[in-house]
Amino acid sequence: MTLPAKAFQRWLQGVAPEASTADVCRISGIKRTTLAQQLVRGKVSVTTVVSISRAYGINPVAALAEFDAYRQLADRQPGPTRCELVSQISTADLLHAMLARQAMDPDGTSGAEPPALSPAPHPTSVKNWVDAIDDGEVRHRVSAATGIAPQNYSAQLTANRLTAELAVATARAAGVGLASGLVATGLVTEDEAGWAPGARRAALDSLSDGDLAVLAGDRLQALGKVLRRQEQDQAQTEKIWENLG
Amino acid sequence: MIEILQWSTLAICGLIAAARVPSALRGENRSLFYIFALMTAAILLSIEAPYVAIDKALGGINLANLLLRFIIFGAIYFVGIRVTRGFGADHAYRLITGRTGMTVLLVISLAMVCMFFLMDTSGSSAGLARVAAKDSWNAALVEYYGAAGRAYPSYVSLVLLPAMVRAVGSRLPVLVRVAAGLLAVGGVAIALTLLFPVVPPEWGALEFIVNYTAVLCFALGLALIWAARVRNKKGALVRRTSTET
Hints:
The complex is a heterodimer of chains A (about 240) and B (about 240).
Chain A lengths: L1 E3 H11 L5 H8 L3 H10 L1 E3 H10 L4 H5 L17 H6 L3 H9 L25 H9 L4 H9 L3 H9 L5 H11 L5 H5 L14 H8 L2 H36 L1
Helix pairs in contact in A: 2-4, 7-14, 9-11
Chain B lengths: L1 H18 L1 H5 L4 H17 L1 H10 L5 H24 L3 H8 L1 H20 L10 H4 L3 H33 L5 H19 L11 H41 L1
Helix pairs in contact in B: 1-3, 1-11, 3-5, 5-6, 5-9, 6-7, 7-9, 9-10, 10-11
């Protein structure tokens, strides 16, 4: 989850040998107190490394690979699979794409090109990514490999969060490119992870009308469940306030 | 020590009741004001000095003690109704207002009144300590009378307990969950009062602590839900104005 401060200092020496901590903070936009606290605690967050490497024009994935825990990121990675690419397209974009398909619009009346895809990550990108690469046993393998309790793991997915460590462990357990999870969690961009520009659009266009319709339906169903649960919680809260507020 | 606990509990309940006067005048959830007013009255009557003063005015036969018991019954009844309604605990609501609840209330009340008039109750004394000291007959009656007085609040709080425990683990707002936790602790404390007859006399202070813990937990729990609502209203207001500008 975090990187040892010693290793971080060593890395920073290599990246910006002349710069003071204040300079590093100014250039990378990190609050000085935040970095100071992380150094005092001996735990530097991965987002700090990502911010600093971006500021100095280094690929963040390559920067992370300098640390022991992420060493394997430096190995040659397979490119993202079609499922992964599609999982990183937001539900709204999927629906737009569906509306523009022949099956939905036989006369081609709308004629308008669907808007450009919004960049990853989207509000359910983490869960969608894990679902896309899950062969049914991935969650088990991740919890066996990292020791995280399955319920904590799924709680993170539901909250659309995943620590960098778990994201890499999940990718490893599923046998996909190790940086993909970092894209899904929004730590690095598609470009930084080595995804080709337009790869998501190409993956989307390669889906048949039927596959896209089913996928969009699944996403809508999941969204509906979440919204319904929120509405129920809200109704219950209102009731409590009505009676006890 | 016990005196401090008593007077500070009285002050807290009195303050909350006073704070609810404006909303009660506006007609918002009057019963909550009544609950706090009844609780304040009950605490007042459980402290020696005010008890003796009030009982002297009522004829000096400890009628104030009987009054205190019914004030407690009234307060806990309204708490039960409001809380079960608010938290949507329909089964618990029926157990309090339905035939079972009414039978329990009636039987306990009748038993309590009978025992009260069987005692020689002359001589004002909080907790009927001096009545119990008269002879073994009166001492036994005071014991059973006290047990009957604790039985109904225990019944209601045990009925409330499952719903409160469920609410603590729910996805409701944090303040509401903390409040439910306080109500649950108060409920457990009230239920523990049933065990008072087996508490050795040298641990008398324990009884006071359990009693006032129960009252404080209920008062603070209910006040917290109110606070949560006020906070939410303010939050909604800020959100609305910020989107307008």
